[in-house]
Structure formats: C-alpha cells, structure tokens
C-alpha cells in the first residue's frame, strides 16, 4: 500500500468521529518490525494518536501487504479486513474495530460506514442467454449459424488465453481452489449431493477425491500454463445476438488460471444437452450437440495448438460435471442422463481425454 499522508489521515478521523477529531501524532508501533521467532508477518501497523472532544485517544492503523498465501489481490486483503471489522467486537476481550476504509485516488482515506452488503452496478449488454440458443437446438431448430457461434466462442478463448503470466504461486492457488474451494469440487461434493445419494456412493466420491490429489501433483509443474481466463465460461454467462456477436458476464474465480478450465465449462453443456436430447441412448453422444462439441474443440486447437490442454482437462471436467449432474441444481434430469454424466466424470478423472471419442467416457 502507498504511504499515507498525514492530512489524509486527519481527514479520515474527522469523517469517522466528527469535526472535533484532530490527528496529533503517528508513531511506529513498538515491536512492529520484529516478531521474535515469527519472521513472516502480513501487516505493518502504526500507532495513531488523536484528540476527540478534547480527550487524548489512541488507535492502530493497519493494512495488509500482498503475498502468495491467497492475498495477491486487494480484494483478497479486503475480505480479511472486512471480516476483522465485522467480528472483532463480538469476541470477548478482543480489540474493537473503530473504522473500515480504503485508500482512494490521490491517497484519500475513504470511510466505509454502516456496511451490510456490497453491490456492483454494471452495464447492460445486448443479446440473450446463449443457453436459449442451445434450448432452441434441443427442440430441433439447428442452424448453420450455431456452428459458427461455437467456433467464435472457441476463437475468443484462444485469443484471451494467449496472454500468459509467469507466476507459479497463482497457478498453484488456482489448482488448490479447483479442488478444495467451497465453490468448486469438494464444496460441491459436500453440498450439492445428499450424503446417501444413490447414483454415486460415498465410496465412489472417496475414490474420486483420491484421484484429484494425484491430479494436483500432476498439474503442479505446469505453472507455465497460467493464462488469462474467464473462469466461469458457460452458456448462462454468454449473451448472443442475431448478428453473431456475443458478450460476457460474471467473470469468476480469478483473472488467471488454467485455460482448460474455460474449455470444460462450455463443453460440458454441449454434452449435457446432447444427452438430454437423446435420453434413450445415454451411452452415446450424437446429433447437433456433438457437432458443436467437435467444432468448439477443433477451432480452439487449430488456433492454439495447445494439445496439452486436453491432457490436463480431466479435473476441470470433474468440477463442471459435478455442477450439471447435481440433483440439487438440476433436479429434472432423467436418471439415465444423470448417471451418464457421473460416469463421464468418473472416467475423465482417470484416463487421458480424447474429445473425438467422448463415448468411451460414457460407457
């Protein structure tokens, strides 16, 4: 964080406590630069002395520095400081938080006051959910423009994935989150499936999780693959227009990650809708959604020559299959379709992926 100017700190105190507040001194905290045998620390607090209504007061001003332990970005650090602000006073004997704020343009200290929730206001893009196009196809209206769109989406991914970043820690964080996050694989296993789920027993989930630990160590040396990603590239986050253009919504799970994650997020929906279109043959993947699947992968590989993406896509398909096979999120699936998705998930976690032979992962 940039150095804080004293006039900005004085203005912040007045914003928080009123015009009678006045900054008198800022001092280095005793022991702030030395923590005994604990050589690593996250913050650098300073002692703030001020007067309020003629009374001498003291407070501690602290922020967090970025590091590789899940605090690379300011929003990571903001979440921790928000937690401390909200909960400190609820713990007996704990120091109370007096204010929560952020450093704005020009070094301003801006007060965040009386917070219950945050929100974001975004522009409205033209178009409709890409999922609506896929449902139209499932009803029998398959158009040449649909293949063009699948290729356009793959081309867009190929373009953004060209931007790479040399940062092993971010890649490892991405893989940890994929497996262990409450939003991702382990969270879905715990929360999106009942404990006694008849279509996938606890023993099968246990075996799946053990395979994922192997995947973590398979992926760990591949940090050179860290690329710009969308992070949640599925049909409800793509808006398409009749002129063939499209826009994107709800970027998630980090700015940087494994490109194969974006591929799996979209492709699993072609698989899902293909099985729903022909539920009587759950061991097959055919028809228009198979054509979209082939076009999507072919276009991406033609533009990137990234065959390694297919070698590492397994655990990302596991994540996406857990979503689309969930009885909580998709309760209306015919049993054969749900079981087909779960078989695909189980097999793609255990053997090399070949997009040209998806049937081998359904049987």
From TrEMBL:
Stated name of the protein: Putative aminoglycoside phosphotransferase
Keyword Aminoacyl-tRNA synthetase attached: no
Domain Aminoglycoside phosphotransferase: 114-267
Molecular functions (GO terms): transferase activity
Keywords: Transferase
Source organism per UniProt: Megalodesulfovibrio gigas (strain ATCC 19364 / DSM 1382 / NCIMB 9332 / VKM B-1759)
InterPro entries reported for this sequence: Aminoglycoside_PTrfase (IPR002575), Kinase-like_dom_sf (IPR011009)
One Pfam family this sequence matches: APH
């Amino acid at each position: 964080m940039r150095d804080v100017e004293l006039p900005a700190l004085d203005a912040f105190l007045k914003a928080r406590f009123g015009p009678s507040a006045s900054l008198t001194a800022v001092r280095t905290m005793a022991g702030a630069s030395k923590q005994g045998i604990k050589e690593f620390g996250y913050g650098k607090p300073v002692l703030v002395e001020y007067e309020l209504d003629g009374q001498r007061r003291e407070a501690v001003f602290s922020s967090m520095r970025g590091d590789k332990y899940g605090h690379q970005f300011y929003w990571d650090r903001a979440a921790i400081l928000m937690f401390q602000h909200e909960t400190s006073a609820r713990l007996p004997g704990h120091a109370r938080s007096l204010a929560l704020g952020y450093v704005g343009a020009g070094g301003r200290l801006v007060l965040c006051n009386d917070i219950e929730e945050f929100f974001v206001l975004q522009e409205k893009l033209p178009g409709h959910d890409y999922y609506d196009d896929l449902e139209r196809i499932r009803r029998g209206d398959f158009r040449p423009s649909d293949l063009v769109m699948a290729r356009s989406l793959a081309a867009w991914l190929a373009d953004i994935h060209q931007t790479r970043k040399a940062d092993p820690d971010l890649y490892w964080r991405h893989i940890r989150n994929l497996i262990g996050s409450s939003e991702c694989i382990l969270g879905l296993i715990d929360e999106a499936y009942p404990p006694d789920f008849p279509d996938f027993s606890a023993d099968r989930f246990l075996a799946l999780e053990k395979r994922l630990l192997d995947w973590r160590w398979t992926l760990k040396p591949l940090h050179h693959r860290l690329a710009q990603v969308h992070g949640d590239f599925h049909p409800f986050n793509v808006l398409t227009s009749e002129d063939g253009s499209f826009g994107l919504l709800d970027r998630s799970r980090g700015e940087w990650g494994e490109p194969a994650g974006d591929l799996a997020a979209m492709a699993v929906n072609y698989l899902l809708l293909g099985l729903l279109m022909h539920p009587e043959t759950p061991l097959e993947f055919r028809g228009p959604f198979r054509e979209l699947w082939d076009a999507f992968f072919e276009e991406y590989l033609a533009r990137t020559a990234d065959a390694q993406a297919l070698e590492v896509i397994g655990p990302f398909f596991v994540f996406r299959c857990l979503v689309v096979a969930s009885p909580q999120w998709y309760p209306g699936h015919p049993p054969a379709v749900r079981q087909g998705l779960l078989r695909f998930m189980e097999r793609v976690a255990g053997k090399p992926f070949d997009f040209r032979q998806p049937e081998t992962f359904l049987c």
